[in-house]
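Box 3.1. Reading complex inputs
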Amino acid sequence: MIPSLLGISLVLFTILAMAPGDPFEELATNPAVPPEVRAALRAKFGLDDPVWTRYLHWLVAMIQGDWGFSFVSRMDVDKLILQRLPVTLIVIGSSQIIAMLVALPVGVLAATRPYSLFDQVANTLAFVGFSLPTFFTGLLFILVFSIQLDWLPFVYRANIDATGWQFYWEHIKQSIMPVMVLGLFQGASLVRFVRSSVLDVIKLDYVTTARSKGIGERKVITKHVVRNALIPVVTLVALQLPIVFGGAIVTEQIFRVPGIGSLLISSMLSNDTPVVMAVTFVIACLVVFFNLLADIIYGWLDPRISYR
Amino acid sequence: MAEPLLDIRDLKTWFKTDDGMVRAVDGVSLHIDRGETLGVVGESGCGKTVTARSVLKLIDMPPGRFEAGQILWQGRDLIPLDETEMNKIRAREIAIIFQEPMTSLNPVYTVGDQIAEVIELHQKLSRKQAMVGAADMLKLVNIPNPQRRVHDYPHQFSGGMRQRVMIAMALSCQPKLLIADEPTTALDVTIQAQILELMQEMKERFGMAIMLITHAMGVVAETTQRVVVMYAGKVVEEASVEALFGDPRHPYTQGLIRSIPRVDRSAGRQARLESIPGSVPSLLDPPPGCRFASRCRYVMPACTQAIPPLKEVAPGHKVACIL
Amino acid sequence: MAGLTPASLTADAPAPAVAAPRKNRPTSPWQEAWRRFRRHRLAVASGVVLLLLIAAVTLGPFIWPVAINEIDFTAKLQGPSWAHPLGTDDLGQDLLARLIYGGRISLAVGLAAMVVAVVVGVVVGALAGMSAGWVDAALMWLTDLFLALPLLPLLLLLMYLFRDHFKRLFGVEGGAFILIVVVIGGLRWMQVARLVRAQFLSLREKEFVEAARALGASKLRLVVGHILPNALGPVIVAGTIDVAAAIIAESTLSFLGLGFPSDIPTWGSVLRDAKDYLDIAPHWALFPGAAIFLAVITINFMGDGLRDALDPRRVL
């Protein structure tokens, strides 16, 4: 975990160092920023130091959560991100759950009846699912469910002035579309992972052994196939995580969900460089962290790993 | 003669592939009596394994299908039975162990769990009692420290130990027939002997019949009473083990016996180990005549005309050859 | 019982078709691949649709010679009609002309980014595969690192930091094009690198490579003449999928306002402009969205068919 974090930080810093001009040049044209602040920033980031010193300074600052000040939002970047992070995590988490809930049964069912009608329909729909870019699905959802049917709000509101059940209901209602857009996109590729993984497992010897025990096909699949098939799927899900975060950025932007994804875009459009760097760094860290989580789940699913 | 335990009549198990029908088992008839050990021998790809799996209906359908024939288990045909009915027979009456002990056990469950699963289902016991039963079975197949080993995963066992686990699992419901599909092929020679010995011991204890599938003639000679020789999806010879080794009639059987290495010949005079030239013909659109014709040293024009039927040449000794 | 060696007959190898005459004539690998590809009906249909799409965006301007920036406020936000088959946007600009123009850019970006990805991937994979040891380890660590990088945020970051610079160097459209292609391609080479390296590892010890080596073939000739052709199938499949991914990536950047500027109508930037008029002019968003979807799904299906044809063992 530490090496990959260091690697990612190196990549980020290289990009930043290679960027033409002074990353804080825009601040000069921003009337809201007094020249002293800019000079202080330059000094703090040591823009004239040798590159290794600059990297170390930058890294230390990043690790300490000393991410600078957002001139657009007029607050410290770390506070800003901490404010926005929970929403993103909730959206990503629930969409992953939706994706699993869709992909697991569909993928397993398709694999147990390969080349059947169900398999073909599921496969084609999966292709449609991950060929539809999230920004287009999002607009389609808005068009159908908000504009045509008027069932769901298309703008996410952070402060809902309702109490009790109403409060939660409003929150769920406005989360449905972002979560579904992300979940279905993710689910579509998962279906194919699950299907092919189950197809691989189902022809293994121990599945025949399980069948010869007379425990019934249903239990053969649920007990002896699915758990084994999930092992490679966990790895693939982990590999998909960077894409999930990309999808989250797009959906947050479309539905104006106040998470770190929409924060990233709005800071880019308003040239708020400290926020841009910090959000990218945080997303990279989250990807690494979830990869670690995937490793733990992997070990839990496969006793051969945990005993090593 | 009493009704045989298992009576396979003219079984045809075919597989549909992109290139056409593969006639993996093409008209096999054999029977097994109670308590006997029947050897089924032949080269790889001759249909032994498909025959064995057909008995428990462990063939994937599609692509496989039963084209014709009957599998009579104590007089009852298994082919028309549905899955629910079959599941009452699997493990409880007929159990099977496979060639690859390294891959036949599910790596993510403990061996105790996998044995207890069978006991729990067929003997209607609680999980806890079933686990006790699993430990008993491990003890029976001479696995040291069974109380602790039930909680171990398959990767913590060696190949020979895993095959013992497989045997323990197969015998946990005291089946009337154990099908052993090349149970020793994947093991070291010394372990092979131990496993065969264990099967013999178990047979004496439980009195079940064994269908021992192998390509090793030596194993057949040591452990079986009666032998069926298969070639290219068909039975070519059937005899008691003494008759088969003493008076092999089919050229293929003769070739198989000649290919056994003999330790009693001294090294200086050791004749070259004979092998049968060529290999099993494709089972896709097989040639019309005897399937061994292309490799047979006695081949005659008549051999390629029609398939020779299985004829009784002596009591209990059948051969499918026109010689 | 001990001392008995099980007599294995010599025929443990899979039985070749000795007796049965083969129905199929011996075919070259490419004919065989074509036969397998044809069996994937969706892939064949997708190929046709994709060809039509390519023909439409390349030949379109000659058949439909309407300027992309002809502003006509009297005809703004109109639905499809004979004058404007796909309707107009908020400035009354003809959407068909703009989507034809955008399609050229999107498809060109997809292809060019794929080429970048494949070239980088082949070089990295070949270097790693040839030079076992620490170079291999380092390159694979780099590959894994890149695989774990969050793609879109990095794409956005690079666009954000370098956009103005490239605009100054290569002009508005050229700058954006070069930057997008390099950045997308530069973040998608990992799959190809892994495939090429895997091919190296599995082929390095094979007989024909050994034979070529024994004959004194130089390392480079060995790579170009023997190993790379064997990696071709999987690389073609990965490259095809990369085209689709690059099209999505470019559209996403433009949609988020960090790709092509909105005066250059790519499918993504048209969609970006359209999204605020969903309620009164849904056609404006539906057509570019459908165009992206059509391009991406046909390329993905093609990739699936190519996988069946060229790389039958892999399932994902």
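In summary: The two ends of chain A are 19 Å apart (CA to CA).
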